[in-house]
Amino acid sequence: MQNSELAELLRRMAASDRDAFAAFYKALEKPVFRFIVSKMNDPHEAADIQHDVFMDIWRSAGRFEGRSTVKTWVFGIAYRKTMDHFRKHKRVDLTDEIDERVDDSPDAATCLATAQEAEHLRHCLDQLKPQHRAAVELAFYQDMTYSEIATVAEVPEGTIKTRVFHAKKLLLHCLSGRMEVRS
Length: 183
Fold this sequence. Notes:
- The protein is an all-alpha fold.
- It is built from nine helices and no strands.
- Helix 2 packs across helix 4 (70-88).
- The longest helix is centred in the C-terminal third of the chain and has 26 residues, at 157-182.
- The chain is globular.
């Protein structure tokens, strides 16, 4: 569904149109759930968070200002709800220091092509910290730009570039180690 169609559904939702909410939910439920469950590794917790995300969207539909795409706005809500859950359950180390360097490494396709089997990649993604995994998944699976991801995560774009840089290095290290073991 196009951004303009999603924005129109939000406008209608702001006027309490339940049919618009049903169409909006149907359009975004699967990608939002996949995004959340990839961080939670628990479909029940992910479903609870997804419910909270869509309830927030229903309640705040009239506050969407169009400064980003609807999808970016929705994934921002999902990201914050997921991080809040981690913080509440003390599953995120918020004191982690990240070296601030711009990502000048090879493109994502080169990094991800290293994984010959999805099992290896999933294992290695699961080893990443939630913030790194979210940046990678939004960039490569949701095809968001660094700017859009920065909006979702509410951090500077440079931080996202750094997270992706470090995540790609960690993924390459993990994948090369797993590939050597399998050889």
